[in-house]
């Protein structure tokens, strides 16, 4: 727990938003929450959070406002309802999206008198508040310096610069390399399985040869493919799919090939349409033929 208890408002109470609010509450911060769907704040309210009826009311309660929604369309809708209530606040947007969308939101914040920090979360909700969570930030250096200690309560934090899009550049690149590697891994598992070899044992050997955080993920995917059971690794497909259009648009805007990302999005959409949106990335294996 830190020695300061800055009041914080959290807008958006999905799995990640609720984890953010819960982490701040556990650290002793007076925390105000709001969600578009009424009732999602009840558990946090029972834990000590103040639950606001409107986003504008929630924003007025704190000098530090954290937004975490499904996509930037939702962010635009919510901020439109906040309006000038954000004036004088530090607005931290932890919604996944492209660098261009981050810069657009920074301009909106400036027009409404707020300091803007864009951020990306490379962690699952249960990892927030631990050393397993990594967050990228960019935008207002003054606002980040003022609230750095508080933001570090969410996990390891790195500030990438005053360009609000830089945190998203880091986040999108980190996420993209993961998807690039994993779709190739699934194709390779299809080959290994077609030859009659044990895909889980092969996955273990690959995992042994790789360093970093993908080791447990690759092992889990190998077991999921072998067993035909696909838990929500990296989150459910319904959430992952919301990020794919941003990944594709970002690459297209820079003239980078989007063939593989389009394939991933097509597979995700097909799997979700078939009623498997609650499963993880490993479930795309079922669509790779054979």
Fold blueprint:
Elements: E1 8-11, H1 15-26, E2 31-34, H2 42-46, E3 50-51, H3 55-60, E4 64-67, H4 72-82, E5 90-93, H5 99-111, E6 115-122, E7 134-139, H6 141-151, E8 156-159, H7 166-194, H8 199-209, H9 214-227, H10 237-253, H11 259-276
Parallel strand pairs: 1-2, 1-4, 2-3, 4-5, 5-6, 7-8
Antiparallel strand pairs: 6-7
Helix pairs in contact: 7-9, 8-9, 10-11
Any overview of this molecule?
This protein has 290 residues and is α/β, with parallel strands linked by helices. The chain has 2 domains: 8-163, Rossmann fold, CATH 3.40.50.720; 170-287, N-(1-d-carboxylethyl)-l-norvaline Dehydrogenase, domain 2, CATH 1.10.1040. Helices cover 51% and strands 12% of the residues. The protein is built from 11 helices and 8 strands. The chain has helices at residues 15-26, 42-46, 55-60, 72-82, 99-111, 141-151, 166-194, 199-209, 214-227, 237-253, 259-276, and strands spanning 8-11, 31-34, 50-51, 64-67, 90-93, 115-122, 134-139, 156-159. The chain has an 8-stranded mixed beta sheet with strand order 3-2-1-4-5-6-7-8, with helices on both faces. Helix 7 (166-194) packs parallel to helix 9 (214-227), helix 8 (199-209) runs antiparallel to helix 9 and helix 10 (237-253) runs antiparallel to helix 11. The chain is elongated, with a radius of gyration of 20 Å. The N and C termini lie far apart (53 Å). The mean pLDDT is 92.
């Amino acid at each position: 727990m830190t020695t300061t208890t800055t009041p914080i408002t959290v807008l958006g109470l999905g799995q990640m938003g609720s984890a953010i609010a819960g982490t701040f509450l556990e650290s002793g911060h007076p925390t105000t929450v709001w969600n578009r769907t009424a009732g999602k704040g009840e558990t946090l309210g029972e834990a000590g959070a103040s639950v606001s009826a409107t986003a504008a009311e929630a924003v007025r309660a704190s000098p530090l406002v954290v937004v975490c929604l499904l996509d930037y369309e939702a962010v635009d809708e919510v901020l439109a309802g906040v309006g000038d209530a954000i004036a004088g606040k530090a607005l931290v947007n932890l919604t996944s999206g492209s660098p261009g969308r981050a810069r657009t939101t920074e301009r909106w914040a400036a027009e409404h008198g707020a300091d803007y920090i864009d951020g990306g979360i490379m962690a699952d909700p249960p990892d927030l508040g631990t050393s397993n969570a990594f967050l990228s930030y960019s935008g207002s250096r003054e606002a980040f310096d003022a609230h750095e200690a508080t933001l570090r309560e969410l996990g390891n934090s790195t500030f990438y610069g005053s360009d609000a899009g830089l945190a998203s550049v880091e986040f999108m690149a980190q996420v993209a390399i993961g998807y690039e590697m994993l779709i190739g891994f699934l194709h390779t598992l299809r080959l290994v399985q077609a030859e009659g070899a044990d895909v889980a044992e092969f996955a273990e050997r690959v995992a042994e040869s790789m360093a970093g955080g993908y080791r447990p993920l690759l092992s889990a995917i190998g077991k999921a493919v072998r067993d035909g059971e696909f838990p929500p690794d990296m989150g459910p497909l319904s959430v992952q799919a919301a990020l794919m259009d941003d990944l594709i648009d970002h690459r297209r805007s820079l003239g980078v090939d989007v063939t593989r990302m389009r394939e991933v999005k097509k597979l995700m959409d097909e799997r979700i349409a078939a009623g498997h949106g609650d499963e993880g990335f490993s479930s795309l294996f079922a669509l790779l033929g054979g």
